[in-house]
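Table S2 (continued). Query chain:
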Amino acid sequence: MTLYVALVHHPCRDRRGDVVTTAVTNIDVHDFARMTTTYDARCYIVTPITAQRELVDGIARHWREGPGKVRVPTRAAAFARFSAVASIDDAHADIVEREGRAPVWVATAAARDDRELTSFASLGKRTRDEPVLLLFGTGHGLTDDLLDRCDAQLPPIRPRRKPGDFNHLSVRTAAAIILDRLLGDGETPQD
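Corresponding output:
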């Protein structure tokens, strides 16, 4: 499976449900670069704000070509398959250019709604030979319009506890869990 991951900063929702553009954070940039490289995926940071894309590009350049490459050479590898784009459609176009075909768009969401969900196992089977664009929303999640454009949606991550307990993972944490469920070896350490 060729996996592409997009950390989407627009279009997202705020706590009232309004469409917003969220701010790019330095920690997300670093963690998504390292995480997606660990799982052999390509990463896009999606924001229409030019200054934020320039910030992301500057961080990546520091680690790929600048003093960061000398100081921590492995970080250069983490930023080798990483870029900032203005829209999800730009990420889609880049994937089509690389793969010669359109990717399957797969949404993630922290909250359950009435959309039909695709299991991790069935996504793995369905997309074994297809490129996949896995979308992670920031703020209060991806907009309904964007979710409607997706070919599939994964179930929310749920802890094995009683309903109503605290469940608000950072996007970095949720992405790591989801990537491991899709691409990890499935081994559980033995005591």
